[in-house]
Amino acid sequence: MTDSSLPQLRFLCFGAGAIGTYLGGSLVLAGHSVVFFERPEPAQLLREKGLTIWQGEKASRVPSPQVVDHIDDVLTHGPYDVAILAVKAYDTLALAESLHPYRVALPPVICFQNGVENEVVIAEHLGSDKVIAGTITTAVGRRGPGEIVVERLRGVGIANEHILAPTLVAVMDRAGLRARMYDQAAAMKWSKMLTNLLGNASSAILDMPPSQIFAHPGLFRMEMLMLQEAIRVMQAQDIPVIDLPETPVRALAWSANHLPLFLSRLLLGRVLASGRGDKMPSFHIDFHAGRGKSEVDYLNGAVVRFGRRLGIPTPVNSLLTETLLALTAGKIPPDRFAHKPDQLLKLLP
What we know:
This protein is 48% helix and 16% strand. The strands form 2 sheets. An 8-stranded mixed sheet has the order 5-2-1-6-7-8-11-12, with helices on both faces. Strands 4-3-10-9 form a 4-stranded mixed sheet, covered by helices on one side. The chain has 16 helices and 12 strands.
């Protein structure tokens, strides 16, 4: 498909956080129509402030984004060619339930969230023909409402399991999102989840940046054990580990499974620390912002659930899931493990 033949599409974007602003804003800047659906308070802020995408020293502005805060208003702006789902995984079910009465009027939905179960939820409420699996490896930070910074441009992936997939890849690539097509949705989503697991739950529990997690011998061992459990669950489902845009996931998985621990820490620890560095990951941000919710149950927890069905032990993922959920629910004091790695490590099976 040549650039001259690319259609101008109408997008509906559920969520205007960091990922929604980046994807939707980039598509607006490329000439497409995008309507953002947000909660009333952030929606009003976005209408007043507009959207800003920073890449290096360059700021690209969308001064007057179309933002609505009620489903009826969403429908009046339609019809749409495709929707983008960019909400947290813990908000997927509630959103899907609210959209169920309008499923006939809604377009196919690209699920860009982390985790491997969002597509199932959307299919149950909107229909399997309305689901497109997607992923994003570009690192995006949020400076404030409607203002994000592209920290590391890598790309997005779209599964080639829907008739719209080739067009969407071409359109998103033209919009500067570096889109790539993948033949297996499960391989794409599970491989992305492997990268999301590293240094995420442990950072939130211990209140330590990933660089310190990977530098600590005991914590690094725990991270590798966690990763090995997830890989075994993938293997039991015949899901291959694949590389994602600018993200060598296969090398990560091979190193975790085959290198001696001291050597993987020497080689892999540096790479992971440079990739994550001192930036706190999403689990930490949610927990320490007091949101009362955590995506840990949709990542580490998903490994546990699939492992249980398949008869594969996942004790490390279980420990991290249960501990962070207990902290989030206030069942454990927030400083119980803060900066105390030995307190967490002694709970490992």
